[in-house]
Write a structure and sequence with these properties.
Blueprint lengths: L10 E4 L2 E8 L3 H5 L10 E5 L1 E2 L7 H4 L4 E9 L8 E6 L5 E6 L2 E7 L5 E4 L9 E9 L10 E6 L2 E6 L8 E2 L3 E6 L3 E11 L4 E10 L5 E7 L5 E6 L2 E6 L13 E9 L2 E10 L4 E4 L2 E4 L2 E2 L2 E5 L13 H14 L3 E3 L7 H10 L2 E5 L9 E2 L2 E2 L14 H18 L5 E8 L6 H17 L5 E5 L17 E4 L11 H16 L5 E5 L18 H17 L3 E7 L29 H12 L2
Parallel strand pairs: 25-26, 25-34, 26-27, 27-30, 30-31, 31-32, 32-33, 33-34
Antiparallel strand pairs: 1-14, 2-3, 2-5, 4-13, 5-10, 6-9, 6-14, 7-8, 7-10, 11-12, 15-16, 16-19, 17-18, 17-20, 20-21, 22-23, 23-24, 28-29
Helix pairs in contact: 3-4, 5-6, 7-8, 8-9
The protein binds (2S,3S,4S,5R)-3,4,5-trihydroxy-6-oxo-oxane-2-carboxylic acid.
GO molecular function: beta-glucuronidase activity; carbohydrate binding
Protein name: Beta-glucuronidase
EC number: 3.2.1.31
Length: about 600
């Protein structure tokens, strides 16, 4: 599925602003057909944004169930004869969409796009009513999982991950046009030799019988460098300018569907020419060893929740660059496509993660000690869940396969990984990810209960990704003890002969809290904690990356271990630096 774009043959408009909105905890709207007329008893809600924090009532914040969105939009008159498509960049965690009285789409999964051809419902010049019911319930068969409990106070959502279950239309909604005969997909795989680049492209077309596909590659200055015809081909780039970490050099691949001299459809794709490879304990980009510095992050903002915001996106990248971060992980779900585009342009490297977080019932809200259910069983996470997970991987790869910034797929964060059941669950998912994309390594993030002597999933992976909190959850306040234990554990992991990326290490820190000597929760302790970790990383050759948890403080569900959310941010939630930000800046700018 290609992103909407304006081209000589395509137009798009954002369906944004204030939509009508109504919570439906009783699930009455589906019975009553609320899509058939103007949404009654509605208030206004901004799109894109999560709905939870924009109001002042607990009913919205803690809502479990259906929430209805509705707006009207006029189809441009100039789109006569074109195909009209309605696209949601995301609806968290699932949605059904109607145009006027007609159901046009259903989608499961909160962080990948879906769309519907609504040409039959969208007469050019006419106004259409768009209604979406967005449901936020997490169950054993959703990704991420959860349990909805009936309590005397109403239905409550239990979940096992450590960030707030924001819901709604977080990302842009689009109405766009394509010609009836059109390009439906483009896939590129790039290769590099000493001075030459190769762009292997594949174009999928609908309704283009008898038409020709032309692919034209231009450099960053707009000069054409290669051209080919046919739905599949290889474009060779002499004196190639590679995409590399720190330098997001992009070529432009213009794909055209042509009928003689007439261009029937045209689509442009930015292309970064780079390679990725795991060799021994090294992670190579363009054949050179790469060391990841950066963060695990969240899409998390005051008021907007997970709502995408260009101003914060640009600001967050500026802060990451200021610290010397060269990479981040899309913990714990696929981020807005705008974020990956920005990473492509800025040469920031991305570990791209599915929304499979919390598949481990011995942890709750990031804290060890849940454990009232088995994780994998016919009654809990089962074959049906795995099919939902597989679909999430398909949609992630389909969406993000062409981003040069994405160098590694992460199929899950901290799943249960010590039982035969976990191996049976994950083996087919790793196989699927590799089949969908043989060009990128695949991994999963391991958690502290599954040390090197217990974990069973590492044989399936290309890299070892570890979330470890020595000196925080373990050896709390005892950095000397933590240092010895951490070193011993890392050395045991290094014996696997794979590169190790420490995908999380961090300490909760209240901005403005100072102690001497350094004590947990103080800014001084966060700095000393990071320094301890860095000494250990520098002593273990197989460590090829360090991602601090977290870039910024973020919202969680309420809990006795969380004070107004998770405070492991190097920046506060409103992006003010803690002392750790300066310490990281010093290390990451002086690293070899
Ligand atoms: C983890 C989780 C992350 C939590 C973090 C914490 O291991 O992956 O989602 O927020 O620990 O702070 O406990």
């Amino acid at each position: 599925m290609l992103r909407p774009q304006d081209s000589a043959t395509r137009e798009r408009r954002r369906v944004e602003g204030l939509w009508l909105f109504r919570l439906d905890p009783e699930r009455a709207g589906r019975e009553a057909g609320w899509w058939r007329r103007r949404l009654a008893e509605a208030r206004e809600v901004p799109v894109p944004a999560s709905y939870n924090d924009v109001f002042a009532d607990a009913a919205a914040r803690d809502h479990v169930g259906d929430a209805w969105y509705q707006t009207t939009v006029r189809v441009p008159r100039g789109w006569a004869g074109q195909r009209v498509v309605l696209r949601f960049d995301s609806a968290t965690h699932r949605a059904v969409v109607w145009v006027d009285d007609v159901e046009v789409a259903q989608h499961e999964g909160g962080y990948t796009p879906f769309e519907a051809d609504i040409t039959a419902q969208a007469p050019p010049g006419g106004e259409i009513r768009v209604t979406a019911v967005v449901n936020n319930e997490l169950t054993w068969q959703s990704v991420p999982p959860g349990v909805v409990q009936d309590t005397p106070a109403g239905r409550q959502q239990i979940y096992f991950h450590d960030f707030f279950n924001y819901a709604g239309l977080h990302r842009p909604v689009w109405l766009y046009s394509t010609p009836p005969a059109h390009i439906t997909d483009v896939t590129v795989v790039t290769g590099l030799t000493d001075t030459e680049g190769a762009v292997d492209y594949q174009v999928d077309v609908t309704g283009g019988d008898g038409l020709t596909v032309r692919a034209v590659l231009s450099d960053g200055e707009g000069t054409e460098v290669a051209q080919a015809t046919g739905t599949h081909g290889v474009l060779t780039v002499a004196d190639v300018h590679p995409w590399r970490p720190g330098e997001g050099y992009l070529y432009d691949l213009r794909v055209e569907l042509v009928d003689g001299v007439e261009v029937v459809d045209t689509y442009s794709l930015p292309v970064g020419v780079r390679t990725v490879e795991v060799r021994g304990t090294q992670f190579l980009i363009n054949g050179e060893p790469f060391y990841f510095t950066g963060f695990g992050r969240h899409e998390d903002l005051p008021v907007r929740g997970k709502g995408h915001d260009d101003a914060f996106m640009v600001h967050d990248f500026a802060l990451m660059e200021w610290t010397g971060a060269n990479s981040f992980r899309t913990s714990h779900y696929p981020y807005a496509e705008e974020v990956l585009d920005h990473a492509d342009r800025h040469g920031i490297v991305v570990i791209d993660e599915t929304a499979a977080v919390g598949q481990n019932t011995s942890i709750s809200g990031g804290i060890v000690g849940g454990g009232s259910y088995p994780t994998f069983s016919p009654e809990t996470i089962n074959d049906a869940s795995r099919e939902v997970h597989a679909q999430a991987i398909r949609e992630l790869v389909a969406r993000d396969k062409n981003h040069p910034s994405v160098v590694l797929w992460c199929v899950a964060n901290e799943p249960e990984s010590t039982t035969q059941a976990s191996v049976e669950y994950f083996e087919p998912l790793f196989t699927l990810a590799r089949k969908l994309d043989p060009t990128r390594p695949v991994g999963y993030v391991n958690m502290l209960l599954a040390g090197p002597d217990r974990d069973l999933l590492i044989p399936l992976t290309d890299v070892v990704m570890l979330n470890r909190y020595w000196g925080w959850y373990l050896n709390t306040g005892d950095l000397a003890g933590a240092e010895a234990n951490w070193q011993a554990e890392l050395e045991a992991w290094a014996a696997h002969g794979k590169p190790i990326i420490v995908t999380e290490y961090g300490a909760d820190t209240v901005a403005g809290l100072h102690t001497l000597p350094a004590q947990p929760w103080s800014e001084e302790y966060q700095v000393e904690y990071l320094e301890m970790n860095h000494r250990v990383f520098d002593r273990v050759d197989a460590v090829v990356g360090e991602h601090v948890w977290n870039f910024a403080d973020f919202a969680t569900k309420p809990g006795i271990m969380r004070v107004d959310g998770n405070k492991k941010g190097v920046f506060t939630r409103d992006r003010r630096p803690k002392a750790a930000a300066f310490a990281l800046r010093h290390r990451w700018h002086s690293a070899p």
